[in-house]
Every structure is written in structure tokens, then in C-alpha cells.
Amino acid sequence: MLDESTRNVARRATRLTEAGVLSVVGVVDDRRIGSAILRLRCRPGSVIDVGTALAELPQTRFVSLVSGSADCTAELCVADDALVDLIFRDIPAIDGVVESTTYPALRYFKTPQEWHVDVLTPQEVEGLLEQWTPLPERFQRAGETPSAEDERIIAAVAADGRATHAEIAAATGISESTARRRLDSLLRRGILRIRAEIEPAYLGLPIEAALWLRVAEREVEAVGHALARMPKVRYVLAVAGDHQLVAQVAVPGRSELYEILREIGGLSGIRAIETTMTLLPVKRGFIIKRDGLVDRWAGPIG
């Protein structure tokens, strides 16, 4: 597909992984889990410590230090009943937190797993997608939910998307054949995906920003879909709160950020756009980062 031998691709991927540039993880479909976007203001001089403390929480998928009206943003991946303790007890208890605002996610128009950088041809992208065809519609119609066995497999694959069937079996206490069959089912149903995580800066997109959009209610659906079609938009979701949509973009430079803000600002229904630029990514995809490189997994296990 890429006109490269399997051995050559594996060798290069291993080199990137060992260097901390690339990580391969298992991710659960964002539409299956509860999530919320968090904005924090911190006491002067405490922002890095607050970001570090947030990154240690297994419920945070990403943590970034940002410019603008907030000092730190994060995504919380928890069910609604667990969200209460986090936002009213655990997070306010972090030394240095002055104020926090929580925006529960209502609907994803585009998830990070659906974002593809323009480095592959359309034919190559199509070929890769054809190998595993998720069937979320069938999954939803059938009313299926992952079994306890499935959940153990998901936890085993989450930290290392390259785990072998034997390693999954050993971690979950099931046979290797069962691990193979259940993992295949999870992938084909679209419940679990294997994703390579890499900092956008390594792909020529060093400028990242979160866009907090106020949108006329009648236009939220149309604007959400329009944003999802933009190649530089990594994700977009509808939220509850004083903003209706939150999107993240990754671009080559500040002039390109200016241009995409102009483009988005011209969409029908846009009332205001607030921009917070990422200054330091502390955690991404449940992985803590040090100087832009993979440090360690810090997500939910079991």
C-alpha cells in the first residue's frame, strides 16, 4: 500500500517509538464515554504545577497550558456520576487552582481519531480504512455493550496498542484464542481503535489552538459539520455552557491560524470566537509528555 516492505515499516516505527516520538495506543470510541472540557485559571507561578497534577489524574485524556483567558485546559473522560467528585472536590483541591469552568460534551462532530494529516494520498487513506470497517450503527441498533471480558481487553490494549494476543491473554486471564477473537470483534464493531499518537509539531503543524465558539442555536448543527470538514480541525464537539462548540486546530504557523479564524468567522451563525493557543502540551491521549516526547502512560487501567 505504501510501497514499503512490512519489515522496513516495522523498523522505522520501532525507531520512532523508542525515541519517544510515536506511541501506539488503543482508544475507545469517544461517543461511548462521557467527557467534559475543563478550563482553569491558576494562581500566578503555579500553572506548571497545576498542569502536572492534572496530568497525573487517570481521568484526564489531554492537558495543555494555554494563552488567553484560561491558563490550563483539559479533557475529563468520566461518567456523569463520577464527574461530580472531580469538579467539586478533587480538582479544586489542587494547589494553585483559582477558578474552573466545566463544559460537558453533548455531541462529537469530529473526534481526534477521525483526524488525518495530509501526508497520505486519498487512495492510501481509503486502503487503510478498509482493513477495519467499524460498524457503530449495527452496534447501536443491536443494543450491545462490551462485556466485562471486553472491558479487561480494552484496558490491556489502552496502554499499548501493539500488545500481542499472548500479552493480552496474560493480562486478562483468558486464553490467547479468546483474546484474538474478542479483540477482533471490538475493532470491527468500532468500539476500540488502534491509533498512533504523535505531536502535530512533528508533522509540520506546531501551532495548536482551541476555539471556543458562540453560535446561534439554529446554526450549531451546520457549523459543527462545516468545522468537521476542515482538514486543519482536529476535533469539534458541542458542549453545554456559555459556548456552544469547542474545536481544536493544528496549523503550520500563526498566519495560517489567522486565516482559519477568518474562514470560521465567516460561517453563518458565528457570534464570537475565543482563541486559546497551546503553549505546552502536558498530556495527550492519556500519555504524559516531556519536551514533546512520550514519557509514560497515565490513563485508566482496569
Question: What does it look like?
Answer:
The protein is α+β, with helices and mostly antiparallel strands and 302 residues long. It folds into two domains: 6-30 and 118-196, no CATH class; 33-114 and 205-286, Alpha-Beta Plaits, CATH 3.30.70.3460. Helix content is 35%, strand content 32%. It is built from ten helices and twelve strands. The strands form two sheets. Strands 2-4-3-10-7-9-8-5 form an eight-stranded antiparallel barrel, surrounded by four helices. Helix 6 packs across helix 8. The longest helix has 13 residues, at 6-18. The protein starts with 5 loop residues before the first helix and ends in a 5-residue tail after the last strand. Mean pLDDT is 87; it is low at 132-143.
Feature tags:
alpha+beta, two-stranded antiparallel ribbon, 302 residues, eight-stranded antiparallel β-barrel, 10 helices, single chain, 35% helix, Alpha-Beta Plaits, globular, 12 strands
Cα-to-Cα separation, first versus last residue = 36 Å
CATH class of the largest domain: Alpha Beta
Quickly count the domains.
2
**Number of separate strands:** 12
Q: Give the biggest beta sheet.
A: 8 strands, antiparallel, barrel
User: What name does the CATH topology of the largest domain carry?
Assistant: Alpha-Beta Plaits
Report the sheet-strand fraction. Answer: 25-35%
- Low-confidence sequence ranges: 132-143
From the alpha carbons, calculate the radius of gyration and give it in angstroms.
20 Å
In DSSP terms (H or I, runs of 4 or more residues), the helix count works out at 10
Estimate the global geometry from the Cα principal axes. globular
* N to C succession of SSEs: HEEHEEHEHHHHHEEHEEHEEE
Cross-sheet strand order for the largest sheet: 2-4-3-10-7-9-8-5
Helix/strand/pairing class, anyone?
Answer: alpha+beta
Percent helix, as a range, is: 25-40%
Q: What's the CATH architecture name of the largest domain?
A: 2-Layer Sandwich
Mean pLDDT score: 87
